[in-house]
């Protein structure tokens, strides 16, 4: 799944209301007496500028981990990729989002869609892991 880079994430100065209960589907609105306080999306998503940047997903190779076409990916370039993590990488200078895997010395980039085969890194190929994707943001509706 290719990615399109948007911009570095900038710290937010806006704290949003945070309600202390889970909202069941169909509940019209949270009651004011359940408001716990405020919460910053920077805190929730552990956004640490300037190590965090944004990219847009392109395609359907990661749908089984909840990343869909046009989702915005939150990327932490300050973390080392570990086995099983979703990464943004450049394989032969082509940016992509995949699941990072390793078997011994063999690096494998896996999709999260059975239509796509695992990609085993060959000796002659270059791979640069640009960051780990801990979160994604999806638009629900026509925005």
From TrEMBL:
Pfam families named in the record: Peptidase_S24 (PF00717)
InterPro entries xrefs: LexA-like, LexA/Signal_pep-like_sf, LexA_repressor, Peptidase_S24_LexA, Peptidase_S24_S26A/B/C
Statement: the UniProt record of this protein carries the keyword Ribonucleoprotein: no
Keywords: Autocatalytic cleavage, DNA damage, DNA repair, Hydrolase, SOS response
Peptidase S24/S26A/S26B/S26C domain ranges (all copies): 22-133
Similarity comment: family membership: Belongs to the peptidase S24 family.
Protein name, UniProt field: S24 family peptidase
